[in-house]
């Protein structure tokens, strides 16, 4: 099988030239360079719209020292080389592309979930350390077999049969993130887990406990970058994987519906954060703290997720038609936008939904037109009084009592006439 035509057709010309140049320089050093990983899979599927094809985060494997090769390439081109000597890998950064070069290596796992011990190896060794047969193929870039497919583990056949298959029975226990990866590819591609792979996956679910929070979270983040992550979540629940990450998680139809709704929002806040907030919507306080700790979730996202549950308990306050915009503003201003959005999606009340959306799309951006300088010129001294006036102006603007600068000036004058002993605090009723 030769994929020269596909490479020429789907890879951007500039990228192709770079890759050929690297391969040429490697040849002079007696090294061979291959394209590996997701791009090979996607080229074989013939679908250039698949993500790795679009992003062109091209992975190259070198039989021999990749770091030295990358340094040499950098010296003779515009590229910057960033080496990782310990792993024998280097990044070549060009203006429009980044290429990852890795020394072909062999990996052994001392114990489940541990980082593997790495020694230089052949291309075949390097493909054997990979997650699934469909991701364990390479395309040769050497001039004498340019485009040649290297497929020692029947990846092409599995692609044709639409199967996700691990390369050896210890694969999931070596690295249980592959459990999450397997389901992600299965759902993305509409494939099935090969029979033995499915059995081993179920057997090794407890091995997820050997994976650090950062790595589990990273896999969830990758899932949330998929076009339809709800299918992955649902399937993970069916297999009993989700419950191993947290016993409070479930992947029922509610999640599917809400994730879908999240994507249809015109201006979603960061979609992955929103998915996280929806994922824990049914959690108790204890459940969420366990989950945040297990996945080592960042401070900012933790705040959004805690806010989600806090706001959920306050939603009845927002289910009143008589609320003034300023009241909505003061009820919501302390919450993270992702938490508000998650509740807007989750709530069954159209009134609540409307109020939350009003805050997100309009109220949170409302500011008085007059600034401190202008207020000073109108005779308001800097200090607490100025703060009070600004707050009154803000509230009036939120409630549509003023709209232009002239309106605001008028309001300021009337306050001055009253010596503004007006209560500046929002009413708390
Ligand atoms: P995607 O389209 O999701 O980017 P990809 O195949 O390019 O798919 P990456 O996460 O970019 O996936 O990883 C590149 C390659 O590295 C994979 O194709 C696979 O061969 C290998 N790989 C990644 N993660 C693992 C893992 N946990 N275990 C073994 N091999 C892995
Ligand atoms: Mg990739």
How large is the radius of gyration? 28 Å
The total strand number stands at: 11
Ligand inventory reads: adenosine-5'-triphosphate, magnesium ion
- Global mean pLDDT: 91
Structural class comes to alpha+beta
Main sheet summary = 7 strands, mixed
Shape: elongated
Q: What is the strand content?
A: 5-15%
The low-pLDDT segments are none
Strand order of the largest sheet: 3-4-5-2-1-8-9
Q: How many helical elements?
A: 23
Q: Termini distance?
A: 74 Å
Question: Can you give the helix content as a percent range?
Answer: 40-55%
List keywords for this structure.
alpha+beta, 429 residues, elongated, seven-stranded mixed sheet, two-stranded antiparallel sheet, binds adenosine-5'-triphosphate, binds magnesium ion, 52% helix, 10% strand
Please explain how this structure is put together:
- Helix 12 packs antiparallel against helix 14 (253-264), helix 15 crosses helix 17 (299-314) and helix 19 packs antiparallel against helix 20 (350-361).
- The mean pLDDT is 91.
- This protein has helices spanning 4-10, 13-28, 38-45, 51-55, 66-75, 123-128, 155-160, 171-174, 177-189, 195-203, 213-224, 229-239, 241-245, 253-264, 271-279, 285-294, 299-314, 325-332, 337-346, 350-361, 372-377, 384-398, 405-417, and strands at residues 32-36, 58-63, 80-84, 89-93, 98-103, 105-108, 117-120, 138-140, 149-150, 163-164, 192-193.
- Strand 6 (105-108) and strand 7 (117-120) form a beta hairpin.
- The protein is α+β, with helices and mostly antiparallel strands and 429 residues long.
- A seven-stranded mixed beta sheet has the order 3-4-5-2-1-8-9. A two-stranded antiparallel ribbon has the order 6-7.
- The N and C termini lie far apart (74 Å).
- Residues 37-38, 52, 57 line the site of magnesium ion.
């Amino acid at each position: 099988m030769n994929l020269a035509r596909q490479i020429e057709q789907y890879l951007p010309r500039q990228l192709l030239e770079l890759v050929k140049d690297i391969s040429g320089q490697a040849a002079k050093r007696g090294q061979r360079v291959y394209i590996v990983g997701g791009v090979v899979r996607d080229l074989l599927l013939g679908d250039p719209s698949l993500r790795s094809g679009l992003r062109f985060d091209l992975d190259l494997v070198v039989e021999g020292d990749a770091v030295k090769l990358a340094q040499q390439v950098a010296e003779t081109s515009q590229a910057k080389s960033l080496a990782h000597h310990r792993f024998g890998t280097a990044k070549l950064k060009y203006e429009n592309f980044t290429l990852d070069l890795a020394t072909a290596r062999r990996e052994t796992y001392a114990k489940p979930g541990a980082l593997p011990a790495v020694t230089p190896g052949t291309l075949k060794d390097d493909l054997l350390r990979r997650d699934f047969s469909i991701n364990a193929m390479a395309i040769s870039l050497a001039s004498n077999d340019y485009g040649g497919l290297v497929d020692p583990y029947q990846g092409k056949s599995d692609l044709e049969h639409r199967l996700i298959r691990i390369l050896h029975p210890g694969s999931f226990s070596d690295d249980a993130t592959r459990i999450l990866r397997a389901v992600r590819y299965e759902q993305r591609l509409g494939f099935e887990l090969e029979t033995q792979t499915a059995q081993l996956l179920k057997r090794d679910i407890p091995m997820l406990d050997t994976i650090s929070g950062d790595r589990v979270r990273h896999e969830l983040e990758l899932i949330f970058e998929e076009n339809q992550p709800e299918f992955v979540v649902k399937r993970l629940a069916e297999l009993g994987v989700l419950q191993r990450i947290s016993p409070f998680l479930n992947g029922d139809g509610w999640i599917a519906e809400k994730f879908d709704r999240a994507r249809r929002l015109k201006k979603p806040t960061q979609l992955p954060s929103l998915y996280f907030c929806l994922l824990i919507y049914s959690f108790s306080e204890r459940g969420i703290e366990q989950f945040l700790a297990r996945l080592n979730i960042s401070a900012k996202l933790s705040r959004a997720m805690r806010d989600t549950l806090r706001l959920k308990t306050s939603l009845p306050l927002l289910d009143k038609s008589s609320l003034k915009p300023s009241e909505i503003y003061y009820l919501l201003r302390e919450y993270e936008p992702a938490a508000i959005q998650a509740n807007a999606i989750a709530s069954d009340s159209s009134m609540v939904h409307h109020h939350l959306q009003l805050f997100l799309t309009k109220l949170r951006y409302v500011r008085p037109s007059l600034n401190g300088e202008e207020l000073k010129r109108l005779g308001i001294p800097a200090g607490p009084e100025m703060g009070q006036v600004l707050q009154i102006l803000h509230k009036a603007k939120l409630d549509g009592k003023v709209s232009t600068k002239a309106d605001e000036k008028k309001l300021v004058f009337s306050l001055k006439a009253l010596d503004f002993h007006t209560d500046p605090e929002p009413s708390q009723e």
